[in-house]
Amino acid sequence: MAVEAKVSRKWQVVIPKEIRKHLALRPGDRISFEVSGLKTTIRKEKDSPFDRYFGFLRKDVGTDELIKEMRGDR
Questions:
Q1: Which of 13, 25, 33, 60 is within CB 3.0–4.6 Å of 20 for a Cys-Cys bond?
Q2: How far is the C-alpha of 28 from the C-alpha of 55, rounded, in Å?
Q3: What are phi and psi of 31, to 5 degrees?
């Protein structure tokens, strides 16, 4: 499958819909690029099962307070 995209002035590229669909990409997914000569391969990286929980715990609240809040203790 060959699909073209344009590089913006800020060096950004929109991944074409056909490629996003083929790779089942979603916002937040990680991709990698492998360059071999003039050929570049894009690959979806496997997610760690812990990635979805990154940033879940707040730093401004202690563990005891967080557990009470989650349980609804007052």
A1: 25
A2: 13
A3: -125, 160
- How far is Cα 35 from Cα 54, in angstroms, rounded to an integer? 30
Give me the phi and psi of 38, to 5 degrees please. -95, 5
Cα 52 from Cα 30, distance rounded (Å) = 12
- Return d(Cα 44, Cα 30) in angstroms, integer: 6
Q: Is the pTM of this model over 0.90?
A: no
User: Cα angle at 34 between 32 and 36, to 5 degrees?
Assistant: 170
Q: Domain segments of the chain: what residues?
A: 17-71
Report the SS3 class of residue 44.
strand
